[in-house]
Fold these 2 entries.
Entry 1:
Amino acid sequence: MAVPKRRTSKSRRDKRRTHKVLTPPTISTCKKCGEPKLPHHICEKCGTYNEKQILTVKE
């Protein structure tokens, strides 16, 4: 059986965990209505993408 010979130090443990971090999603604003939206997605409020009307949204 594989058993560690030495205890893993706090420094070595933390160095291994440096990349395990969550980043918040980037949020941009719609150019037409100013609502927050995800980049490269259709605005759910007004239905535009790249300043072009894609969807008709019921109010």
Entry 2:
Amino acid sequence: MDLVGGKWKAVILYHLKDTNKRYGELRKEMPGVTERTLSLQLKQLEEDGLISRQVFGKKPPVKVVYSLTEFGKSFSPVLHAIIGWGDQIAAQKGEFVNSL
């Protein structure tokens, strides 16, 4: 849980599961997260080897792209199980809770 615990790490991994994203794209898809929190969570996920950060260009504005590493992709079955569980709860309660 140290690697993926907390409110936002699994959400970030969810948004990177199918495609690489730039910081701004992640920010738009997660309006409830502050810039500082997103930045810190991305840094921690990178340090833990779950995501990679590629920087293109040398002068500002540089292009930064985040993607899952092979280690990060190995979390996908767990992520899919969590999504399935959440969908089951939503179906039982008859509502979707959109906290992302």
